[in-house]
Q: What sequence folds into this?
């Protein structure tokens, strides 16, 4: 018997605004030499996130994770923690996966596949498969399509992205000093983060005087390689009300949005424009906010340049003015719109994007884990004194944007708000 | 067609026997005769080898001879090599070159942007004093680094016969 036609208005993304939440965040320590398997690290981080949310193991019925053949599947992490899942998927990918998987988690819950999803990334990015590309990855045979890149000594993330960075300097007059401010600000933030692997503050001169890796990148323009696992838990806003922390609601998500010609994106210019140029047209309308509404950003800092390029192409400043934007004080704590208040990939640790989402969740809870004293009520008493060894909580923060990066041609992003 | 295994600067290079697009591309390079796929539908050239036309989705293509001349669109200069094979060659340059052929087509921001190292005319990687002469805008011509039977890598060298721009753009710090 034919079923009656149902009229569904699927033309608007608005109805998902504020309908889902991140209720738990967890991580391991950030180390160079974890002395643990990615299985042990993953289990540790997912457990921390479940405990952080105040959930029971039986509440988690979905699991998503991402890796590049350098991690452990959800099958082992869920098994070790005694979780029975209604949905799991191991995804290939690095940077840009976090926000993209939050989008998938929302879709899964909407589709009725599961109710609460843990998303994790576990990696020994220093002691096993080095993220900078040295070691096993650089020694592997060069086959097929790789003959068009690795055979030319064009392999690592820095080497691959450099033509974009260099062309931005050529097109817009962006200077090395302007971009070095990103490291300076992020290192200031990290000095107020007890978890950060590198807590030392660096100056612009420190960056410029550090040795070249590949132009235009000095050593201190590049992120740190660390061993760690990280996890966020997504569920409906309805269920989130029963969780431990103030609500952190998801306004809108973009997942792995591309420039043309993903096979070799430099074929399509301008090459100084990155995928955020396209992603912004999904992110802002879906979220119902614009750059001017954002109190803090988490713009992926695999390199100082990646932070700048994304902030520019998402419209936080005019095209070409990214160098000015990242150097005028806006992105520092106490500035108008701080970026990566944990120190990010440049200082806290490298997680392929997850720790920047975790940080913004804590910021929106008004519970950044800095050096401020804990009061008699057990809550941190934020001083908003951003000097070294002090506070890193952004005052009265209500809305954040995470801008994930895989490479110049692929971007994911997410806007969250305090509930 | 059999696959190819060869060694370049000590690195193992492999092409599988099913990888017809790449085998054809490098076979032309081995004859020092640069060819790109021309779409049988819209006629546009494309790089690197693909299995369909990115503009019109046509599967069929023919190999067409293309002049290996152009200008540097962007570059990186690697000082800290991560691949052991390149350590003794630092600093080496990776050039992204706009071919003169089909530049600005089909949209003004598109070009056939062909990757390669800065090399000497014989295909060896260029020494530091030559690296310092090259930047965005430098006119270059294609040369080939011979790797093995049926396999040469297209590379770039300064086009000494071309009129060079008065100022090429280099990163401000040497």
A:
């Amino acid at each position: 018997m034919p079923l009656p036609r149902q009229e569904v208005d699927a033309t608007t993304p608005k109805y998902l605004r504020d309908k889902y939440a991140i209720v738990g965040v967890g991580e391991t320590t950030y180390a160079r030499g974890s002395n643990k398997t990615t299985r042990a690290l993953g289990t540790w981080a997912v457990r921390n996130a479940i405990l952080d949310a105040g959930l029971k193991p039986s509440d988690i019925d979905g699991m998503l994770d991402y890796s590049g053949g350098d991690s452990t599947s959800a099958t082992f992490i869920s098994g070790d923690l005694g979780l029975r899942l209604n949905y799991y998927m191991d995804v290939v990918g690095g940077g840009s996966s976090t926000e993209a998987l939050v989008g998938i988690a929302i879709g899964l819950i909407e589709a009725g596949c599961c109710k609460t999803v843990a998303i994790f990334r576990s990696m020994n990015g220093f002691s096993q498969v080095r993220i900078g590309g040295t070691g096993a990855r650089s020694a592997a045979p060069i086959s097929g399509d790789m003959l068009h890149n690795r055979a030319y000594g064009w392999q690592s993330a820095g080497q691959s992205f450099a033509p974009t960075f260099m062309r931005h300097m050529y097109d817009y007059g962006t200077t090395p000093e302007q971009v070095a401010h990103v490291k300076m600000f992020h290192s200031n933030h990290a000095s107020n983060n007890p978890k950060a692997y590198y807590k030392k503050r660096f100056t612009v001169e420190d960056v410029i005087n550090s040795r070249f890796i590949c132009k235009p990148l000095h050593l201190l323009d590049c992120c740190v390689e660390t061993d760690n696992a990280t996890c966020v838990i997504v569920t409906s806003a309805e269920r989130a009300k029963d969780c431990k922390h103030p609500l952190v609601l998801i306004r809108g998500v973009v997942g792995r949005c591309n420039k043309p010609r993903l096979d070799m994106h430099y074929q399509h210019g301008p090459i100084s424009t990155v995928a955020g140029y396209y992603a912004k047209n999904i992110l802002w309308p879906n979220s119902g906010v614009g750059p001017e509404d954002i109190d803090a950003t988490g713009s992926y800092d695999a390199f100082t340049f990646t932070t700048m390029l994304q902030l520019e192409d998402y419209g936080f400043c005019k095209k070409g003015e990214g160098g000015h934007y990242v150097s005028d004080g806006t992105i520092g704590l106490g500035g108008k719109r701080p970026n990566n208040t944990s120190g990010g990939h440049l200082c806290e640790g490298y997680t392929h994007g997850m720790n920047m989402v975790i940080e913004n969740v804590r910021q929106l809870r008004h519970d950044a884990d800095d050096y401020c004293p804990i009061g008699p009520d057990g809550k941190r008493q934020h001083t908003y004194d951003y000097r070294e060894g002090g506070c890193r909580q952004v005052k009265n923060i209500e809305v954040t944007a995470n801008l994930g990066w895989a490479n110049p041609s692929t971007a994911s992003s997410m806007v969250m708000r305090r509930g | 067609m059999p696959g190819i295994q060869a060694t370049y600067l000590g690195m193992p290079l492999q092409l599988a026997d099913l990888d017809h697009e790449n085998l054809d591309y490098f076979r032309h390079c081995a004859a020092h005769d640069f060819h790109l796929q021309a779409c049988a539908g819209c006629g546009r050239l494309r790089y690197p080898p693909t299995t369909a036309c990115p503009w019109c989705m046509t599967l069929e293509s023919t190999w067409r001879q293309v002049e290996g001349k152009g200008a540097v669109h962007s570059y990186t200069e690697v000082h800290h090599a991560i691949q052991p094979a390149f350590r003794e060659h630092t600093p080496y340059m990776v050039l992204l070159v706009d071919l003169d052929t089909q530049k600005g087509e089909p949209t003004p921001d598109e070009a056939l942007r062909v990757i390669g190292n800065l090399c000497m005319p014989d295909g060896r990687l260029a020494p530091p004093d030559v690296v310092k002469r090259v930047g965005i805008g430098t006119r270059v011509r294609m040369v080939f680094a011979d790797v093995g039977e049926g396999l040469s890598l297209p590379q770039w060298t300064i086009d000494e016969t071309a009129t060079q721009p008065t100022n090429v753009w280099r990163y401000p710090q040497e």
